[in-house]
Inverse folding.
DNA sequence: CCAACTGTATTATAGCAGTAATACGGCTCG
DNA sequence: CGAGCCGTATTACTGCTATAATACAGTTGG
């Protein structure tokens, strides 16, 4: 069963997208594996304190992308092939790195200063 | 006069927030200085291809934050004290770095791998 | 001076995100 | 079997983003 213990909602980004990112990044890290059961829509919505429709939207988008499989009556399961994981990893890393580099460059930092900030913040979180 | 030549709109983030970030990051980098003239609301909206009200919202929020001064009939000016710049720099760097580190950690990267990705992407953009 | 610009304000419209309440059909397990 | 889960679907409402069309007051510069 996929755990949402380390999931924390943060403002500014749509909740359904945060759920998408959490599951995709978990898959890339290996914490979430092919065949893992997902919490039901109702259970997860209660756990996160959001509307069931918000979770449903996230799950529906994941299914359209082929990352989960759903059948009426049964729990949804992660569906992760090697090719899917490879594609996901490249997509997410490129997007996040590009955005960070863009921000650092716009603020006039050198590459060395940017790396220093990353290293400084690396230990500070759980 | 503050230039928007290197400004590019991207989807997913409200336009007025992109304008806010562009001006704040420009101030932190030194490319935008205290007393610099800003394009008028009408001129900038035409330049970006967005509605004048969207630019007006960005400028209004900047004025509420004390980063620009506006007087009816005259162009708005950047208003950047040393303390303002110091606060801005700390705020923006912390926010951007924290978000990047969060993404890298959720994907299971080590600190060294994260730094490597930053360095790899550093040169690839203009 | 006065035309053309500036900032500011108002009202209306459309679309999307998120919430809320509800309903229906299928699977599981005691 | 049947109660209680599960996924799925529909409708309605709120708030934010962005657009659109005006209108008015103050400044600037030829």
């Amino acid at each position: 069963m996929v755990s949402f213990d380390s999931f924390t909602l943060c403002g500014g980004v749509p909740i359904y997208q945060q759920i998408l990112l959490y599951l995709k990044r978990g898959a890339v890290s290996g914490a979430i594996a092919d065949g893992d059961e997902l919490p039901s829509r109702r259970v997860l919505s209660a756990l996160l304190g959001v509307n069931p429709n918000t979770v449903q939207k996230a799950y529906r988008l994941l299914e359209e992308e082929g990352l989960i499989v759903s059948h009426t009556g049964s729990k949804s399961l992660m569906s992760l092939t090697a090719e899917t994981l490879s594609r996901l990893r490249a997509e997410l890393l490129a997007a996040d790195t590009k955005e960070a580099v863009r921000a650092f460059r716009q603020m006039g930092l050198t590459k060395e200063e940017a790396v220093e900030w990353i290293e400084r913040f690396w230990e500070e979180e759980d």
Notes: Chain B touches chain A at residues 21-22, 25-26, 28-31, 89, 92-94, 96-108, 111, 114-115, 117-122, 125 (CB under 8 Å). Helices of chain B lie at 15-29, 41-48, 52-64, 82-106, 111-122. Chain B has two domains: 1-80, 81-126. Chain B has a mean pLDDT of 95.
